[in-house]
Amino acid sequence: MQLQSLPQKRSISTGSAFTLVELLVVIAIIGVLVALLLPAVQAAREAARRTTCVNHLRQMGIALQNHLDSFKVFPTGGNNPNPDIRNYTSGSISNPGTPNGPNKQGLGAFYQLLPYLEQNAIKGIVNQSQLQSKSIPMYNCPSRRSPSASDTSTSAFAAILTDYATAQPAMRGEPCGAAPYDPLALWPFDSPIQVSKSTRSYWCGTGSPGSWGIPTTGAHYGGVIVRTPYRLTSQATASVSAIGERVSGFPTAVKSGQVSDGMSNTLVISEKLVRFDKYGGGGVSDDRGWADGWDPDTIRFTGVPPISDADQNICWNSNSTIQSSCIGQGGTVPVLFFGSAHTGGVNAVFADASAHFISFDVDYLVFNSIGTRAGEEVVDLSEVL
To answer: Which residues are within 8 A (CB) of 383 and not within 5 positions of it... i.e. 6 or more apart?
Structure first.
C-alpha cells in the first residue's frame, strides 16, 4: 500500500512594503514639488486678480465717458469731506427730489458714476448712512480686499471702503495759501515741511488744520475731476431744501475740450495707497468709503509718486509726520499717495477710458504731468507705462 504524500503548504507571497526611508523620500519629493508649484500658483492667482482690477478701472473709464455724453462734463469730486446726501438733492428731507448735478453735488465721482455702472437704485438712496453702507464690488481691488466696512465703526450702516481714487495734481507756479512754495518741488519727503506743503496743495485751502473742508477762492484744481464749486449756506430740514452758493475762483465741472493735454494722456482714476496692516480701514483717509466727498478716501495727489502698500521708506519712516503721510493723522496729515498691493506699480484709467499699469519707479514730475488736464507738459508716455 502506497502512502499518500501530505499536501504541501502553499507559500503565501507578501508584496514588499515601503520602508520608512522610502516613505520619507516620497514625502520630501512631494514637498519639493509643492514648493516649486506654489509660487507659480500664487503668481497665476495674482495675475487673475490684477486683470480683474484692470477690468474694474476700464468699466469706470467707460462710465466716465457715458457721464460725459449725458452731462457734457466729467463728474466732480465733491466739495467737502463727509457730506450728507440730504443736502445735495433738489428737495427737503421728507421730499428729497433728485440728486444735484455735478456742479452742486457734495458727493464725489464714485457716487456720480453709479448710474453708468448699473447702480441707479443705489444712487436713488437719500439717507447717507444707508447709501455709504452699500457694497459696489467694482470699487475694490481683489489683490487687496473684498468690499468691506470700516472696522472702527459701531454703526449698523458702516461705510464700505474703496481701493480707488481720482487725481488731484500739483499745479506749476500756483501754490495754495499765502506762504510761497514750489508745488513741484515737494518730493522726496525729507522733512515734515514737504508733507505740510503737499497737504496744502492737495486741499488748496488755507493750509491750516481744520480748514480742509472750507472751499476758498482762487483754488487750483487742475485734474479732470475738480472740486465741486459749491458751498452750503444752510442745510436741509424736513420741509426745506438745502441752500448753497457758487464758490468764486473754482473751476466748474470739466468739459472734454478743457482736457487740452489729450484724453489719452491724462490720468483720472487709479489705485490708492492703503498700508498693508490698515486694510480694515478706520484711519482718517480710509474710513468713509466710496460715498465720500473731496477727501483722501476718494481723491489722491499726483504731486508725489505712487508707492507700494508695503513701502518701508515712507510708511515705516522713523519721522512720525512722514510715516503719518502713509496712514493718516487726525486733522493734520492726510494720506496723499496713490498705491497698490500689486508688485511693481498701480493700475490706472485715463480720460479716454484706456487702462494702464504705472510703475512705482515713475519719475514723480512725469507722474504729476499725467495728472494735469491742461499743464502743457511734454510727456513721453513710454516713461510712464
So the answer is: 362, 363, 366
Instruction: Tell me the sheet residues that pair with 164.
Output: 271
* E-state strands within the chain: 164-168, 230-234, 243-246, 267-271, 299-301, 307-308, 339-340, 345-350, 355-359
Grid cell digits, residue 45: 492667482
Q: Which of 109, 374, 351 is nearest to 222 (CA)?
A: 374
Alpha carbon of 308 to those of 341, 343, 345, 361: distances in Å? 6, 8, 7, 11
- pTM for this entry: 0.87
| pLDDT, tens digit (0-9, with 9 covering 90-100), for 254-271 | 999 999 999 999 999 999
Read off the amino acid at residue 378.
V
Number of Cβ atoms within 10 Å of the Cβ of 46: 15
Please name which of 281, 227, 272 lies closest in space to residue 250, comparing C-alpha atoms.
227
Distance CA 243, CA 90 (A): 10
Asked whether the CA dihedral 50, 51, 55, 57 is positive or negative, the reply is positive
Q: What are the extents of the domains in the chain? A: 22-383
